[in-house]
Design brief:
binds uridine-5'-diphosphate-xylopyranose; six-stranded parallel sheet; 14% strand; alpha/beta
Length: 462
């Protein structure tokens, strides 16, 4: 069978895998190949047990796999055979040298560009899918044109806005598709080729085009704005706790203003995930690089408030439990950075567990999907920690439960049974504000939500 287009994606991660599966699913006329340097990942994509958990992903992958969706480690062959190459390799925060802890580490990105150059035998469109610092396309172009071999490369920026846990829904029905290119004839032509792919299922008015720099920057800014809303409401949650206001009531009242909107206003233990912190720090670094100190400080405060919120959560636990956690058992409900994913990258749970272990608490972690990752995240950290699939078993004998991830299953557990299995006084710290506090209080728990009055059975005299 001959296909209309040969599409390659380098990087079979959380972004590359689901995005390509959706393109293959929606466009049976294209051949879509996903390659990765990691053979275990590729084998997992070929198996029944996919390397990432995403609701609905299995169905989409199974429908297209071996029909027009292929997974392989042969990156060189993939490059030779493709017309369009999406690059979705990871761009973590640099851990060394200039910009360490802030700037993006572009080594995988540059290595991939060179790999494309070394193996390409025909002209290609290169699509930046990974989130990158603004002006990365220029570096990419400079590498790709460093040999005068008459092969043309057009670099297009098409950032991915999917959120984990809802990736399939977001891919199927995106708010917008953004495609940026050079404003030259060939740049616009390349951009239109990418527009053609998405047109197969995304309404025309949702596909927007821009210059390549705006496109690169928009991704960083979208993530920074989303994270900023969370830090804003989390900062207010601290004030609520001091004033008897209820942060949920405040966010409802504020969010009903059409101009503000009601999304991303849930106070929490802090945001996590592979993108928010990394992208904001990247923005901070870029602003500083361009001498915009005030702008850079402004955005850095979003990350600082997030750190403060995580810290505050642990301090609330410590203070509520009589300023000592040594030897006490604390059960973490959830370890993933949000519900419906097994991903734990930058999860607040990592920070919280380490702090609790530093206080010499015994920590029982339960999570429906993230226990394997949790174990890897905590490897090498000293302390008494165990990983238990069943939440009832995990809570048994504990002094406290800390809800860290808003998994639905935690909303409807038999808390009476749980209370009876715990040591008294029993505490619940709800880092996601998902539980029914009055009900828990009536069972006998001492309840500490975020940004709401606590409900305890302690009186001034006892
Ligand atoms: C990553 C970034 O975190 C995100 O900012 C960006 O938008 C897209 O890439 P994600 O897909 O979640 O997102 O990363 P990850 O799951 O780590 O996947 C990257 C994949 O690229 C890995 O499977 C890795 O093995 C692969 N890779 C990395 C290569 O194939 N070649 C390389 O040189 C480096
Ligand atoms: C984010 C962006 O939403 C997505 O567009 C981008 O492509 C990648 O980064 P993701 O990190 O997968 O997606 O998840 P998201 O739903 O944005 O949640 C990020 C963090 O914020 C999670 O830890 C979540 O629990 C937290 N959060 C979210 C809150 O604490 N409160 C909220 O109101 C919303």
């Amino acid at each position: 069978m001959t296909f209309e287009k040969n599409i390659l994606c380098i990087g079979a991660g959380y972004v590359g895998g689901p995005t390509m599966a959706m393109i293959a699913h929606k466009c049976p006329q294209y051949k879509v190949t996903v390659v990765d340097i990691n053979p275990d990942r590729i084998n997992a994509w070929k198996s029944e047990d996919l390397p990432i958990y995403e609701p609905g992903l299995d169905e989409v992958v199974t429908a297209a796999r071996e029909r027009n969706l292929f997974f392989s480690t042969d990156i060189e062959k993939g490059i030779k055979e493709s017309d369009i190459i999406f690059v979705s390799v990871n761009t973590p925060t640099k851990t060394f040298g200039e910009g360490a802890g802030m700037a993006s580490d572009l080594q995988y990105w540059e290595k991939t560009a060179r790999q494309i150059l070394d193996n390409a035998e025909s002209s290609k469109i290169i699509v930046e899918k990974s989130t990158l610092p603004v002006r990365t396309a220029r570096a990419m172009e400079r590498i790709l044109t460093s040999r005068n071999n008459h092969i043309r490369f057009d670099v297009v920026a098409n950032p991915e806005f999917l959120a984990e846990g809802t990736a399939i829904r977001d891919l199927e029905n995106p708010d917008r598709i953004l495609i940026g290119s050079r404003e030259t004839d060939s740049g616009r032509e390349a951009r239109n080729e990418i527009v053609d792919i998405y047109r197969n299922w995304v309404p025309e008015e949702k596909i927007i085009t821009s210059n390549v720099w705006s496109s690169e920057l928009s991704k960083l800014v979208a993530n920074a704005f989303l994270a900023q809303r969370i830090s804003s409401i989390n900062s207010i949650s601290a004030l609520c706790e001091k004033t008897q206001a209820d942060v949920a009531e405040v966010s409802k009242a504020v969010g009903m203003d059409n101009r503000i909107g009601n999304k991303f206003l849930n106070a929490s233990v802090g945001f996590g995930g592979s993108c928010f912190k990394k992208d904001i720090l990247n923005l901070v670094y870029l602003c500083r690089h361009y001498g915009l100190e005030e702008v850079s400080n402004y955005w850095e405060s979003v990350v600082r408030i997030n750190d403060y919120q995580k810290q505050r959560f642990v301090l609330t636990i410590l203070e509520a439990m009589f300023n000592t956690l040594a030897g006490k058992r604390i059960c973490l409900f959830g370890f993933a950075f949000k519900a419906d994913t097994g991903d734990t990258r930058e999860s607040p749970a990592i920070f919280i567990t380490k702090k609790l272990l530093d206080e010499k608490a015994v920590v029982n972690i339960t999570d429906p999907k993230a226990l394997e990752n949790a174990e890897a995240d905590l490897a090498g950290h000293n302390g008494n920690v165990s990983f238990v699939k069943d939440p009832y078993e995990a809570a048994t004998g504990c002094d406290a439960i800390a809800v860290v991830t808003e998994w639905d299953i935690y909303r409807n557990l038999d808390y009476e049974k749980i209370f009876n299995s715990m040591r008294k006084p029993a505490f619940i710290f709800d880092g996601r504000n998902i539980l029914d506090y009055k009900y828990l209080y009536n069972i006998g728990f001492n309840v500490y939500p975020i940004g709401k009055p606590k409900l305890t059975h302690f009186t001034k005299t006892n």
